[in-house]
Fold this sequence. Notes:
Two copies of one chain form a homodimer.
Chain A: H1 3-19, E1 29-33, E2 36-46, H2 57-74, E3 78-88, H3 93-110, E4 113-121, E5 126-135, E6 149-152, H4 158-168, H5 175-185, H6 194-200, E7 203-207, H7 211-222, E8 225-228, H8 237-246, H9 250-256, E9 262-267, E10 279-285, E11 290-292, E12 295-297
Parallel strand pairs in A: 3-4, 8-11
Antiparallel strand pairs in A: 1-2, 2-5, 3-5, 6-9, 6-10, 7-9, 8-10, 11-12
Helix pairs in contact in A: 2-3, 4-5, 5-8
Amino acid sequence: xxxxxxxxxxxxxxxxxxxxxxxxxxxxxxxxxxxxxxxxxxxxxxxxxxxxxxxxxxxxxxxxxxxxxxxxxxxxxxxxxxxxxxxxxxxxxxxxxxxxxxxxxxxxxxxxxxxxxxxxxxxxxxxxxxxxxxxxxxxxxxxxxxxxxxxxxxxxxxxxxxxxxxxxxxxxxxxxxxxxxxxxxxxxxxxxxxxxxxxxxxxxxxxxxxxxxxxxxxxxxxxxxxxxxxxxxxxxxxxxxxxxxxxxxxxxxxxxxxxxxxxxxxxxxxxxxxxxxxxxxxxxxxxxxxxxxxxxxxxxxxxxxxxx
Amino acid sequence: xxxxxxxxxxxxxxxxxxxxxxxxxxxxxxxxxxxxxxxxxxxxxxxxxxxxxxxxxxxxxxxxxxxxxxxxxxxxxxxxxxxxxxxxxxxxxxxxxxxxxxxxxxxxxxxxxxxxxxxxxxxxxxxxxxxxxxxxxxxxxxxxxxxxxxxxxxxxxxxxxxxxxxxxxxxxxxxxxxxxxxxxxxxxxxxxxxxxxxxxxxxxxxxxxxxxxxxxxxxxxxxxxxxxxxxxxxxxxxxxxxxxxxxxxxxxxxxxxxxxxxxxxxxxxxxxxxxxxxxxxxxxxxxxxxxxxxxxxxxxxxxxxxxx
Lengths: 308, 308
């Protein structure tokens, strides 16, 4: 049996059975050291899967840090340390220096630092990042409560539209298109929400595979049904313009577009803080599955292996 | 300028200048959390560089854990947690399960556990491991003192001979050859020496690139000269038989063969513990460079990029 027959998530189930650790499945792994709860996570960017060599290498470095910081803040933590593991072909030294300049800039921005790493030779470039964070209270995917409201930290679908624009490899882009591309190339992890999540959220994760796919993970982990309100899902003006131009549906981009790196979390509606970037997009109900308004929907997100 | 023009270690110097963290260079990165000193490290195994797909996948999993545990014990620590980051082509699920069985077996053996990980798709298999350990006292490469004796924890050169035997792809191997192959396929990290190193060593590292290359790193980091005694370097009977059969010099295998994962450490001779596996192979002197008996030698070890 090949991996493509069971998909990435089918493979993960088998791995969990071997390792025998029920914790695996959240964005980070929480571990208690003395009085601290540390969060460990890793995420990899692979050439021609997650980025192309034609992208600015400083953006790739920035993104490698950001996607890991996003995992840490999704669980209510703040980032502390990073280890950078590189697989490199023989390439220009300038490129690698740009990569590290992006890593350094992101670490300075998020307030963490690189403490180590490793370099190996391979045919394609891969940047594997390990990150250590800490939290006063770990919030994972399994705590959503009946009656909770579901929130998202920002607009969805922009990154997917930005990727499609990038892949067109045009010479000229309009300003709104460049902003969508920027969302794809240089996502910013929502460190501004870390404390709110740690203090108030019952369940939390980041959106990396697409809203519908990630909401499904949260609903399964928490054993609840989640109902999304289509007209409440935040859509950027840039995405609206993009969809108008190309005859697409922005809600579809929000539901199945990946790599948004926005946060998805639940808590009672009353804990909504109007001074923070958080949008009420759904509710937690008894039952299972995900509904868009009054219709059950099938999750459609990114599985690295599944042949659809 | 290409990476091959400056080599792996030249590239690391440039990266250090960007990151601006002087700690980078030891086998692990020590970080203080409350009253604990945690050790972070990562090491990657890449298909066709570090292993072939024809090797048993459980051995590859075992080795991925072992090489990281080796870094932790080299700095006087004990392993606690691992994160496994896999880059996978579409392949047999059985293979991946074997890999994880090897990982699990190694974790049980060393007393650590897998707490998380990540899977990405790529053209070649890579297993990137992130490990967290702890120590009561961190021992790095820079503390060797004048008058210290240099010790190694076991025989050297076996892994290289085992690799050469494996690459012959013969149908039949003699028992001593199988033992050399086993040393290459399933190295055992020297957890038995972790407490001794933490308690007594002034400088310590593991031997992954070859004795001469790694002794040079220790001598440079500590600003000392190191003199090796050729007849004291421990050589296994298996390596002697191999070298006799193929007309090779076992000392050369010990000096330049990599992937031994034995420990290299210094402390006063009086601290030698005859109940532990430790061999006195040299002394720390004023000056620089490495000497084999009375002759200065050039380090010859493994650089992933350098074209020699």
